[in-house]
Amino acid sequence: MSATPTSPATPLLSPPEAMSQAMDSGKCGMLCLICSEITFFGTLLAVYLFYIGKDPAGTPTPSEVLEVSAAPMKVVFNSFFLLTSSIWITLAVRSLRKGAMGAFAFWWLLTILFGAEFLVGTGLEWYGMIADQGLTIRTNLFGSGFYTVVGFHAAHVTIGLFLLSLVFVLTLLGFMHKRHAEKIELLSWYWHFVDGIWIAVFTIVYIIGR
Amino acid sequence: MKTLQQPGHGNGSEYSRAPFLSRLHEWIATTDHKKLGVMYVSTGLIFFLIGGLEATMMRWQLAVPGNTVLSPEDFNRLFTMHGTTMVFLVGMPILLGVANYFVPLQIGARDLAFPRLNAFGFWLFLFGGLLLYFSYFGAQGLYGMGSAPDVGWFAYAPLTERTYSRGHSTDYWILGLLVSSFGSIATGINLITTILTMRCRGMTLMKMPLLVWLMLIDAILIMIAMPPLAAAQVMLLFDRLMGAHFFDPQGGGSAVLWQNLFWFFGHPEVYILILPAFAYVSEIIPVFCRKVIFGYPLMVAATVSIGFISLGVWVHHMFALGLSPMVNTIFMGSTFLIAIPTGIKMFNWVGTMFGGKIRFDTPMLFSTGFLAMFLIGGLTGIMLATVPFDWQVSDSYFVVGHFHYVLFGGLVFAIFAAIYYWFPKVTGKMLSESLGKCQFWLLFIGFNLTFGPMHVSGMLGMPRRIYTYHADRGWELWNMLSSIGVLIQIAGVLFFVWNVIRSLRSGKKAGADPWDAWTLEWSTTSPPPEYNFEEEPVVYSRRPLWDKKHPEDPDWKYE
Amino acid sequence: MAMVSSCLLSLSCVLPAMAAGVPVCADGASPSPTMFAPRSIPAQKILDVSWFVWGICGLIFLIMAALILWCIIKYRQKPGDDTEAPQIYGSNPIELAWTIIPTVIVFVLFLVSARTIFEIDHTSPPPNSLEITVVGHQWWWEFDYPDQGFVTANELHVPLTRNGQSVPIYLTLESNDVIHSFWVPQLAGKTDVVPNRLNHLWLQPTMTGTYVGQCAEYCGTQHANMLITVVVHEEDDFNDWVTNQQTDAVDDPSVTEGRSLFLQTSCINCHRVRGTPANGTFAPDLTHLMSRSVIGAGVVANTPENLNTWVFDPQMIKPGCRMPSMKLSPEEVKEVVSYLLTLK
After folding, report:
1. CB contact under 8 A, B261 and A47
2. Helix B397-404 vs helix B433-459: angle between axes, to the nearest 10 degrees?
3. Residue B335 DSSP SS3
4. Residue A44 to residue B226, Cβ atoms within 8 A
5. A25-53+63-208 topology per CATH
6. Which helix (H) or strand (E) holds C327?
7. Taking CB atoms and an 8 Å cut-off, how many pairs form between chains B and C?
8. How far A59 CA lies from chain B's nearest CA (Å)?
9. Beta carbons within 10 angstroms of residue A165's beta carbon
10. CB B297 within 8 Å of CB B345
11. What ipTM score was computed for the predicted complex, to two decimals?
């Protein structure tokens, strides 16, 4: 970059050079975290894809198990709850930016409840698979892959719910303020990421894998 | 709550008067990148001594054929622990430690972007390492069969499955490394964010010191390549503890899959280890040749290419696995490709030396040693990329020779160069030049004596990871030479330890800029104050101190 | 003394062999598993391309080393000279040159090597091959000759010619447990032996002799003692060997005591001796044990003394191996060994 020196001392800095921060560090850090998580889930999903169809005959297959105990409607129902929670959290963040604490608390709580429903639904689905279908992590490759992939996703949902609940408690206690909107938005990014991963998991496990 | 810090803290009399417990508490509770940097590097060096001890025992066992110094079980644990220690508990912490200390200083920042995450990363690394070593005591398991892991540092399945690896040794390998690598990933994210968002005014990406560029690409590689290892390790853990079948061939799982996942991490990992070596040498060579680095933009382009391509070469660790000729050929191609930017860097370093005025102080000695050793290691790497040749020497001592040339002759020599270069800044004292020169020559000779002959024994058919060998294979001479070299290296390391201890106590005072260097860290005191810079620096070129020292001929006229 | 002289012998064979590819100890004594004395077509092809890549790398090394030495000598800072050197920021033509030249070199290397890969890697047996199945176990090698109808262990015998023509040997590689690797440098590069996967390796010997190698993928405690011996025979010798292997075990009446002891102890759970009730597949086939020169996959020579120690307690010779001590008394061991010694 060449700039005409104004004096023997130093050149004039053009605006991009004069600015040191292109992006807020919180956002950058959260994006990096999401990137690393994507490679983690990417690996699990790649392994899942690799093992589709490789189970010997006689063991439970995805089409059998996911047809019955998950029954397309149930998992779609659960997914609806998780994915719409992304909408609620976006509305919550918007409310917080405006300083509408009541609205923020409402949308935030809705996010938590919808996320919790997803977990409950997943739990019930697993119960059905284990008790009725006899599919566990050790049954076959499908079992190993399914519980690992869906399990890690559910674990990330759980972590997210824990953090969201923490924020909700702080809101109830009156510690949350409009100026926290930037940080809360980062948390919402994490939540969106968790939902995004679910779309990938759902597509691969329930659609492609069957 | 932070304790009150004084300017110039840590450099003199006021500090040493504080009670021991409060000084200890300061180190344990610190989030200051400089203290964490020192902690990372010191712990890494301690693990280096432990790993070296493991290697010494192995070379003692292998000095003569049919030796009985070690049982096969003990030997197998030693090479596993040696490899795992050197890669994860020496290489990673030292490079993250040096980056921790100097990236903020070189970009004119006050600390890393997330200081508490930084501390968290260090403690995760330390406890992960301790967990791994606890396996010697704790891994007995139900059958009384466990101890330290003995599956090799890359832990191929199905040897690591419950059937073939009894007790909990492999579980300790998994868990110790999972914990440690979380720390590395956290620090990687921290470094990326710091470099992208906290540079001082005027420092565009193309005005960053090369160390910062290399650590940026390094941190990106850490972020992308370490999670797949974590994923593979949890899958292995599920196999072992919950009966899953990911890598269990009898349950339909694939042993080849483990290798693909591991090396997808493993190959970028070796670039993660070597890029910092490139970084140190790129800082040191210009200063000691009194010349600007030759071809900065090409160096940046080469760095980015290396980072990128390194994600696409992993199958070259699997050429003997019986994959299709097309797959082997493609990955041979990508491996040859990565040789090009690596070679370019070598040429640019030599181009910097050419026409310079070279001062052979210890940092430059080690950097020159790096150039020579990395040249050899890089060329044996090109030989290994040639698939047919690899079919002979893969998994033989030739490979052991190759990677020690790049990781010891390359990385470790560069680390010593960095230590001699930056020790004055960190401690305010100079390391002794004469002890340093002794260390260098002993290490140089001992290192070559140990690892040079390995190329020969590899080509004469000696495989890796054997606890003994027969007398009639023709390998005795080379093994004996290798083992003798270890004694010389030990002497070199002892000189280093003595140098550090003596210089800490009574080394010559360093001053802010003992080497007449050009990057921002040399504009602070030695050691720097807690806050690094009183005012945010403004830079106009890649060498801000050159501009200050040569106002009539500043860099920004030529960049 | 004998060991020292055979050490020196192997050294004197190896060093010139390394330099000039001269045959190594063609009489079979102390063969060294060197890639520099290829005795098979794929090994020869590998050596040819290796010389090429060594030549190129050697040239690059000489040039770079010379440049570095030149800089070290010529551009040393003169004592008392405190001035800076002329600052050269770069040079587009030079940098372009040293980007393009390595690219060309690497491209040429790539083409030459790719051709060799496809020449060596046969995904199906060449016509008129002798097909043998290799099964890797912890820590020994099983060799199945499906066309000839027998199984042996640790020593692979192959013919140089069949009906006067050079015969390709096509190995199918399987694993019984973990990953191993079959490596006999004088005959071919290595190929891993992977559970749940079929790999293949092509050999085509060009000279009779005995060639050695060993497992080249860490497979557990006794990975170091999983040796391979390959004996390349003249056609007639090979046919004789096959005929012998095909016969059932010798039934020597003078060792009935030992034979019945063998059959009563749990030896038969793991080992097979064709022509007796012993039909185990977990351990080496012992039908023609005495036709082999080593036991324990090469850990010791096949002598009555070593056999005695082995049968008494294998853990004394190969600690960690899968065969337990059968807790036989010394007399019982002698009986069993005298039986084994008849299994020629």
Report:
1. yes
2. 160
3. helix
4. no
5. Four Helix Bundle (Hemerythrin (Met), subunit A) (1.20.120)
6. none
7. 302
8. 11
9. 15
10. no
11. 0.93
| Pairing mode of beta strands C227-233, C155-159 | parallel
Residue among B421, B410, B341 nearest B369 (CA): B410
Q: Residues C263, C164: one domain?
A: no
- Of the candidates A5, A28, A143, the beta carbon closest to that of B196 is on A28
Q: Which whole number is the average pLDDT over B11-32?
A: 81
Return the amino acid letter for B213. W
User: What are C297's two structure tokens?
Assistant: 């996959």
- Is residue C292 domain-shared with residue C207, that is, in the same domain? no
- CATH number reported for the structural domain that contains residue C308 in this entry: 2.60.40.420
| Secondary structure element (H or E) that encloses residue C85, with its range | none
For residues C289 and C315, state if they share a domain: yes
pLDDT averaged over every residue in chain C? 90
Which chain C residues are Cβ-neighbours of B297 within 8 angstroms? 90
Under an 8 A CB cutoff, do C76 and B468 touch? no
Lowest mean pLDDT among B333-342, C16-25, C90-99, C262-271: C16-25
Please report where in the chains the tokens 């294979």 appear, as a residue. Answer: B473
> Whose structure tokens read 């599956």?
B151
Q: Is the pLDDT of residue A6 over 70?
A: no
Beta carbons of B474 and C14 less than 8 Å apart: yes
Whether residue C21 lies inside any domain: the answer is no
Angstrom distance (rounded) from CA C117 to CA C125: 16
The answer to whether residue C246 sits within a structural domain is no
Does any CB of chain B come closer than 8 Å to the CB of residue C290? no
Q: Are residues C183 and C307 in the same domain?
A: no
Q: What is the distance of C-alpha B332 from the center of its chain?
A: 25
Could you tell me the residue range of the domain that residue C322 belongs to?
253-340
Looking at B265-366, which runs of residues are DSSP E strands?
A: none
Identify which of A20, A50, A54 has the shortest CB distance to residue B201.
Answer: A20
Q: Report the greatest alpha carbon distance in chain B.
A: 76
Cis peptide before B158 (omega within 30 of 0): yes
d(CA B112, CA B100): 7
Domains delineated in chain B: 35-557 (1.20.210.10)
* Global pTM exceeds 0.90: yes
* C120 inside domain: yes
The C residues from 142 to 171 touching B (CB cutoff 8 Å) are: none
What does the CA dihedral C245, C247, C252, C255 come to, rounded to 10 degrees?
50
- Out of C235, C261, C286, a domain closes at C235
Average pLDDT value for residue range B48-58: 97
Nearest to C221 among B72, B343, B351 (CB): B72
Kindly state whether residues C293 and C181 are assigned to the same domain: no
Cβ of B193 and A28 within 8 Å? yes
- Residue B348: which of B303, B394, B314 has the closest Cα? B303
List Cβ neighbours of A117 (8 Å cut-off, separation of 6 or more).
A78, A81
Quote the number of domains for chain C: 2
Structure tokens that stand for A139 in this block: 């049954």
User: How far is it, in rounded angstroms, from Cα B83 to Cα B415?
Assistant: 18
Cβ separation B388–C116 shorter than 8 A: yes
The verdict on C33 and C157 lying in the same domain is yes
Mean per-residue pLDDT, B171-183? 96
C307 shares a domain with C280: yes
**Residue whose C-alpha is closest to residue B273's, from B174, B404, B373:** B404
Q: Which amino acid makes up residue C281?
A: T
- Ordered DSSP codes for B360-404: --HHHHHHHHHHHHHHHHHHHHHHHHSHHHHHHHTTBHHHHHHHH
B463 contacts in C (CB within 8 Å)? 181, 183, 214-217
DSSP assigned state of B66: T
- In this structure, the number of other CB atoms found within 10 A of the CB of residue A114 comes to 19
Which residues on chain C are in Cβ contact (under 8 Å) with B71? 319
Do residues C266 and C160 both lie within one domain? Answer: no
Chains C and B touch (3+ CB pairs under 8 A): yes
